[in-house]
Design brief:
The complex is a heterodimer of chains A (483) and B (93). Helix content of chain A is 36%, strand content 14%. Chain A has 15 helices and 13 strands. Chain A has helices at 8-16, 22-35, 47-59, 101-108, 151-158, 175-181, 215-225, 269-284, 300-315, 334-345, 348-361, 366-387, 413-417, 424-429, 457-470, and strands at residues 42-45, 70-74, 112-117, 164-169, 184-187, 207-212, 255-259, 288-292, 393-397, 433-441, 444-452, 476-477, 480-481. An 11-stranded mixed sheet of chain A has the order 1-3-2-4-6-5-10-11-9-7-8, sandwiched between helices. A two-stranded antiparallel sheet of chain A has the order 12-13. In chain A, a hairpin with a 2-residue loop joins strand 12 and strand 13. In chain A, helix 7 packs antiparallel against helix 15 (457-470), helix 9 crosses helix 11 (348-361) and helix 9 packs across helix 12. Chain B is mainly α. Chain B is built from 3 helices and no strands. The mean pLDDT of chain B is 91. The chains are: A alpha/beta (483), B mainly alpha (93). Chains A and B meet through helix 9, helix 10, helix 11, helix 12 and helix 13 of A and helix 1, helix 2 and helix 3 of B.
């Protein structure tokens, strides 16, 4: 009995039929982590406590929904007593005295947090090349990036080490690595999942979500991750449905918005072919394709690269070497302490974004950049509001192509920023969006993005699950199709 | 974007730029600002800025003390502290 490449649903069944003990599951996870150490997916392991929690479950079986399910946690969530680095040198010694709400929710549901996953520094990157702890490798190819910023989480699930991982998504950081690693991941509606204990990058865009092998597993995880949290003022106090309840609904008569002004000219024919054949699968499932217009979509990336750096420059001002994290050696005065700590502790991409943020927020430029970007942000959201009066979901490719080689984007940051061309708009508008595998190009997976209306994760998961009952792209692994 | 502007914003950000990286940073920031300048072509007169996708006002709650006193735990993770305070280099002579 192995848990490699197994879904949460399958592992739950193995546990309930006593095919495997909780301890055996956790021990296998650590063997798989060892075997896959070349992926560099984990930064810190939580072995002793995980084995202990598994032994307790073996002695006192629990009927919690995710009892005994091993999960990898993105190293952006504070975890009590376990080092939390956010992929940065400035936090390489930080052990939080509390856990993020989402970590508590998952652990209360019985999940075992086996370790913390590598990521782009402060979630700023689309290839996991900005981590202080080194590149993460994609299990689909030695020199391929896993995407980013939740690259370690995506790589660990894709390699079959764990059935589930947590991620966060500010401009595509769950969906883009899910696409490049051939797994399923969903960014919920802004406010669905508490941000308390999540290290902030861009507070009006950040949202945590699950990464797993199937839409059904994402529904199980999301059921537990969502909560109203008084410790986060942007946490929504709305009804949280059981996301599993509607996943088997027929798609008959449901409407899929196809963005007619989407610029596909920069995509390979193979990518367009995969996308178009997925749309036809939904037609054969009974859905109807409807042309919609999102005229301001092409402005998403420039809007994001004003809003996100502005918020990041403000959020990252807390890293000053005074209260936690790394402090530079022997500063001559307080100002030198701040400057040296930050200059030594942050990597190049983080510094670049702080500088852009300081520029667009500085006196004389605020209206021209920050205010302007927020006005365009409203136009982008208005386009979605209008589109969703006609359709149930909107579909686009998740990424411009499959995984690319480490180092291949060169040193021009804008080339990397354009990686998130299709994903960023959902963050700007606060909408839920999922990526799920919908094809292979040269033996590399690629994903389809399904964007839903505000608070309507259920419909996205329904579309995703129905697609996965009809296709087997989610069954593909780097070692072939799952039996 | 020029060297002088970069010097100003790096000071505002409390960051020191290595001299050998300065040229590339000025060039990168210049390219990024030119890239976002395409927003200038959009007519946004009479459009209210959207600061947050949730436009509902945050709900208020009762003013009850819920947080535990974590003074000891928080001071423990500080780079330098005594039993009551975070310590930094002297600022008052």
């Amino acid at each position: 009995m192995t848990i490699k490449y197994k879904t949460i649903k399958e592992i739950k069944q193995m546990i309930s039929q006593k095919d495997i003990s909780n301890k055996e599951i956790v021990e296998e996870v650590y063997k798989l982590i060892d075997k896959n150490s070349h992926l560099n997916a984990f930064v810190t392991l939580n072995k002793d406590k995980s084995i202990k929690k598994a032994e307790n479950l073996d002695n006192n079986p629990s009927d919690s929904s995710l009892a005994g399910i091993p999960i990898a946690q993105k190293d952006l969530f504070c975890t009590k007593g376990i080092r939390t680095t956010c992929g940065s040198k400035i936090l390489d010694n930080f052990i939080p005295p509390y856990s993020a709400t989402v970590i508590e929710n998952l652990e209360n549901a019985g999940c075992i947090s086996v370790g913390k996953t590598n990521m782009d520094e402060f979630a700023m990157g689309s290839s996991n090349e900005t981590s202080f702890f080194g590149n993460v490798h994609n299990p689909w190819g030695e020199n391929l990036v896993p995407g980013g910023s939740s690259g370690g989480s995506a790589s660990a699930v894709a390699a079959g080490i764990v059935p589930a991982a947590s991620g966060t998504d500010t401009g595509g950081s769950i969906r883009q690595p899910a696409s490049l690693c051939g797994i399923t991941g969903i960014k919920p509606t802004y406010g669905r999942v508490s941000r308390w204990g999540m290290i902030a990058f861009a507070s009006s865009l950040d949202q945590a979500g699950p990464m797993a092998r199937t839409a059904e597993d994402c529904a199980l995880l999301l059921n537990e991750m969502c909560s109203h949290d008084i410790k986060d003022t942007t946490s929504l106090d709305e009804n949280i449905p059981n996301f599993e309840d509607s996943i088997n609904e027929s798609l008959k008569g449901k409407k899929v918005g196809v963005v007619k002004d989407l610029d596909l000219s920069s995509l390979d024919n193979d990518v367009i072919g995969v996308y178009e054949s997925s749309l036809q699968e939904f037609v054969s499932l009974g859905a109807e394709l409807v042309d919609i217009s999102l005229p301001n979509l092409s402005l998403s990336v420039p809007t994001y690269y004003v809003v996100a750096p502005a918020e990041c420059s403000s959020n990252l001002s807390r890293f000053d070497g005074v209260k936690f994290g790394r402090r530079s050696e022997n500063p001559k005065d307080l100002e030198e302490l701040y400057i040296q700590t930050r200059s030594e502790g942050f990597g190049d991409e983080v510094k670049r974004r702080i500088l852009i943020g300081s520029y667009v927020l500085s006196s004389g430029y605020y209206d021209a950049y920050y205010k302007k970007a927020q006005q365009v942000r409203r136009l982008i959201k208005k386009d979605f509001d209008e589109a969703f009066s006609d359709v149930d979901v909107i579909m686009t490719p998740t990424t411009r192509g499959p995984a690319f080689e480490i180092g291949s984007k060169g040193s021009d940051p804008i080339q990397m920023y354009l990686e998130d061309l299709f994903t960023i708009s959902a963050n700007l508008a606060g909408l839920p969006a999922m990526s799920l595998p919908n094809g292979n190009i040269d033996n590399k997976p690629i994903g389809l993005q399904i964007i839903g209306n505000f608070l309507d994760e259920s419909t996205i998961l329904n579309f995703g699950h129905m697609y996965q009952t009809k296709t087997n792209w989610h069954m593909f692994t780097p070692e072939g199709v799952k039996p | 974007m020029d060297k002088k502007t970069v010097t100003t914003i790096s000071y505002l950000s409390r960051l020191k730029i290595d001299s050998e990286k300065e040229h590339k940073i000025v060039k990168d920031l210049d390219n990024i600002i030119k890239f976002v300048d395409q927003l200038n072509g959009v007519d946004t007169s009479s459009i209210e800025p959207l600061t947050n996708p949730l436009e509902k006002t945050a709900k208020t709650r009762k003013d009850e003390v819920t947080a535990k006193n974590l003074k000891k735990e928080l001071l423990e993770v500080a780079p330098s502290a005594n039993e009551d305070y975070f310590l930094v280099p002297r600022v008052v002579e």
